[in-house]
Each structure stands twice: as C-alpha cells, then as structure tokens.
Amino acid sequence: MSRRLARETALQVLFQRDLTQEPLDIAKTVQLWAGEFVVPEASMAFAKELVDGTITHQDEIDKKLASFAQDWTISRMANVDRNVMRLATFEILFRPDIPGRVTLNEAIELAKRFGGEESAKFVNGILDRVVDSVSKAERKGVLGVLPEGS
User: Fold this and answer.
1) Are 7 and 90 in contact (CB under 8 A)?
2) pLDDT tier at 144 (50, 70, 90 boundaries)?
3) Average pLDDT of 96-104?
4) Could you tell me the domains of the chain?
5) Which of 72, 73, 87, 96 ranks highest by number of CB atoms within 10 Å?
6) How confident is the model at residue 142 (pLDDT cuts 50, 70, 90)?
7) Angle at which helices 3-20 and 26-37 pack, to 10 degrees?
8) Where are the alpha helices (DSSP H) in 21-118?
9) Alpha carbons 149 and 138: distance in angstroms, whole number
10) What pTM was computed for the model?
11) Angle at the Cα of 56 (from 55 to 61), degrees rounded to 5?
12) What one-character-per-residue DSSP string does 107-128 give?
C-alpha cells in the first residue's frame, strides 16, 4: 500500500471540496482522483478514510489549527496549505498508529509538491506545534498529571 499516493489523493479531494464548496460523493471522487495518481486499490481505502475523517472532524481540526496559526485565520490560508494541514491534523489527532513526526514529514512533502514557495515552511511551523501539543497531552495522561518518574 502506498500511503503517500493515498495522501495525495485525499488532498485532491479535500482541495476540490474546499474550492467548489459543493457536496461531493466522497467514494466516487476518491476513485476519480485515485485514477489520476494510479493509486492501488489497497491505498484507496486509506485515502477515503483520510477524507471522511478530515471532513467529519473539520470543525475540531480547524479550531486546533487556528490556535497555533498566529496572525492567520483558516480562511486566509492558501487552499493547498489549509487542506494539507487539515489532512495531517486528522492523522495526528485520530490515527495514533501513525507517528506524528511521520505525518508531519508527509505533510511537508505534500506542501512542497502542491503548494507555493513558502508552503512547506508554513505547514511545518504550524503542524510542529500540533504534534508537540498532542505529545505533551499524551505524556500528561488523562488527568493532566505526569506519571511518576517523568
């Protein structure tokens, strides 16, 4: 399975949805973009999961991003940057099986490939804070108390 191709496919779907502001048949749109990137069938399920999860949790994701984006509103961000960060934030928050730093590196690569000249730096700056905030929250545990010996 190629997770990178799945992420590229998911990004295209999210970009299209964000740009057109029209409801999409997610499965059909994922399949369309997967055809463009020659995504293996096994990777299409991951792409669909990323799109579905990002859309389902978009309000929570946008609040998280806004809290770390100093002097930037979500709507003011470049469309590609915004959707790369939404996609990555979904993974960071809701896919604990994928290390946050792996997701961060993948997001930077997406930003380099599809974004503008400064996209990779911008995405890195914000997502690095997201990854750190999740790591700190995990270390503190549910009650906000550090485990003994920490």
Assistant:
1) no
2) very low
3) 92
4) 1-56 (no CATH), 57-136 (1.10.940.10)
5) 87
6) very low
7) 130
8) 26-37, 41-56, 58-68, 79-94, 100-114
9) 15
10) 0.85
11) 75
12) HHHHHHHHS-TTHHHHHHHHHH
Return the percentage of the chain with pLDDT > 70, whole number. Answer: 89
| Residue 73: burial class (beta carbons within 10 Å; 0-12, 13-18, 19+) | exposed
pLDDT digits (tens, 9 = 90+) for 44-82: 889 899 999 999 999 999 999 999 988 888 988 999 999
Q: Which two tokens stand for residue 14?
A: 């999210």
- Own/partner contacts of 129-135, CB < 8 Å, gap of 24 or more, are 129/68, 130/64, 130/65, 130/68, 130/85, 130/88, 130/89, 130/92, 130/93, 130/100, 131/92, 131/100, 131/101, 131/103, 131/104, 133/64, 133/68, 134/92, 134/93, 134/100, 135/100
Residue type, 136: K
pLDDT at residue 141, rounded to an integer: 44
